[in-house]
UniProtKB/TrEMBL annotation:
Organism per entry: Pseudoalteromonas lipolytica
Protein name from the UniProt record: histidine kinase
EC number of the protein: 2.7.13.3
Record-linked CDD domains: HATPase (cd00075), HisKA (cd00082)
Molecular function as annotated in GO: kinase activity
Length: 486
């Protein structure tokens, strides 16, 4: 069983509250109308009983012929059918009355309301007992004396049963029915209008709920949704819908980024496993050859195999160091320690460190301009690592008799360092991928490369708030350019 929607809850709540309020207002209005009517009627006939006592000799003398008094009451009722007449003694007992025998069910009434009315100790309307029913009605009353001695009270009910019957008949006529029907129609019309307004106001919430249900069915992925419903109203619900879709789009992007990073990490592990396995296998093979008791190797051959084993050990050590360095950079825990130093001195130190390697490869190293006197403020150790990686990468991909140069130029408050080579170059469609960990260009010359050097450079320059750019022409060489703040 489905739970009620917000609109249904609001509609039923409104109907209940509206009906209750209508009932309360109707009842209050009816009571107010009756009270106002009783107040007017009682004030209008307040002196009626007193005038009857003073103007009628039969009552005024205080000598009562109850039969004659009863006939008088009947006569008065004919003249005023809206009244009922009673004569009660000083204790409230009925002595005679205008009603027919059998219609009076009370033979004694409460005198407190009568005394309140006579003494005017309470405000009207004042209600007294109706001897013909168990209800309370407005009345007029006056004391009757005989030689200064209280004989009883003339008690006149205003609006007796005859009057009530006639009034009820009038209320049930066609005019009042039409009025009542008009009132009911107006109330129903108002109710329908309010329900339509509720529907109008809750429709955006319903549409937003449908969106959320479809998004949940698509496992909170916008790309998996067969359709993308969207409430685009310029209000709070519209802003909420835009926020939900924007949040989901951002989550989709982050999820794709995580999936791509996970894919790259798996590929990196695969390549690293291969690169670790290769020098380990070579190292194991050379040591195994040297260790054989009957290898019949002379001293020169042993030294040659040991040298090859040392080269593989060095390559393995370099690869492991780069793996740890890249992992440390990706963890986000690396800090930048800035200091001011001469950039030219650092460049020449890096060239001197790699001069022997370049000389063995038949490569010329140069600095442009030769007198490189520029001052920078940055992390000297990380900049040295960047320059060393770029130079090593250039040496690996530059053939014999090639040239590698480091040039420095100044533009405004920025220094631009460019590492250029006359090597094999990079295919244009691979330029965007060479900074990914362990990416190898398809024309790469693998002189002990690990494929992590450029990725480390990219991470270090990002930490130093610098950007690196690459331009390359296949067969002519490559240029790596980054900026530094003075």
């Amino acid at each position: 069983m489905h739970s009620m929607t917000l609109y249904q809850k609001l509609a039923w709540s409104f109907i209940f509250i509206f009906s209750l309020l209508c009932a309360l207002v109707f009842n209050w209005n009816k009571q107010l109308e009756q009270s106002a009517q009783d107040h007017a009627q009682q004030n209008l006939h307040l002196q009626l009983a007193e005038h009857l006592v003073n103007d009628n000799p039969l009552i005024k003398q205080g000598v009562y012929d109850y039969k004659a008094l009863e006939n008088l009451f009947h006569t008065l009722m004919i003249l005023g059918p809206a009244f009922e007449f009673y004569f009660v003694d000083s204790t409230g007992k009925l002595l005679t009355y205008s009603a027919k025998p059998g219609q009076v069910i009370k033979q004694k009434i409460n005198l407190i309301p009568i005394k309140e009315l006579i003494n005017k100790t309470s405000t009207t309307p004042i209600y007294g007992d109706d001897p013909r029913s168990n209800t309370q009605k407005i009345f007029s009353a006056a004391p009757v004396y005989n030689q200064q001695q209280l004989q009883g009270y003339l008690y006149v009910i205003i609006g007796g049963q005859t009057f009530d019957t006639l009034l009820n008949n009038i209320k049930s006529n066609d005019i009042l029915k039409i009025g009542a029907i008009g009132f009911v129609v107006a109330v129903i019309t108002l109710l329908i209008i309010m329900l339509i307004l509720f529907r109008f106001f809750t429709l955006p919430l319903t549409q937003l709920n449908n969106e959320i249900c479809q998004i949940r069915a698509a496992n909170y992925s916008l790309t998996k949704m067969t359709q993308s419903p969207r409430y685009s109203g310029n209000n709070e619900i519209g802003n909420l819908s835009k926020g939900v879709h924007g949040m989901l789009s951002r989550i989709d992007e982050q999820l794709k980024s995580l999936q791509q990073a996970d894919k790259q990490r798996r590929e990196l592990l695969t390549h690293l496993s291969h690169d670790l396995r290769t020098p380990l296998a070579s190292l194991h093979g050379f040591i195994e050859v040297i260790k054989k008791p009957k290898s019949h190797l002379n001293e020169h051959e042993k030294q040659h195999y040991l040298s090859l084993a040392m080269d593989n050990c060095q390559q393995l050590k370099l690869l492991i160091e780069q793996i740890f360095e890249l992992a440390h950079l990706e963890s986000g825990q690396v800090k930048i320690n800035t200091e001011t130093f001469n950039l030219g001195e650092l460049i020449y130190d890096c060239l001197a460190k790699l001069a022997l390697t370049a000389q063995k490869a038949g490569i010329t190293l140069q600095v442009i301009p030769e007198i490189c006197d520029f001052t920078v403020t940055t992390d000297i150790a990380k900049l040295e690592r960047i320059l060393t990686n770029l130079l090593e990468n250039a040496i690996r991909h530059t053939p014999e008799k090639g040239t590698i140069s480091i040039s420095v130029s100044q533009q405004s408050e920025q220094l631009y360092v460019t590492v250029s080579d006359t090597g094999i170059g990079i295919h244009e469609d691979e330029l965007h991928a060479i900074f990914e960990p362990h990416y190898q260009a398809r024309n790469s010359i693998k002189r002990g490369t690990s494929g992590l050097g450029l990725a480390i450079c990219k991470h270090l320059l990002t930490l130093m708030n610098s950007n690196i750019e690459v331009n390359s022409t296949l067969g002519k060489g490559s240029q790596f350019r980054f900026n530094l703040s003075k």
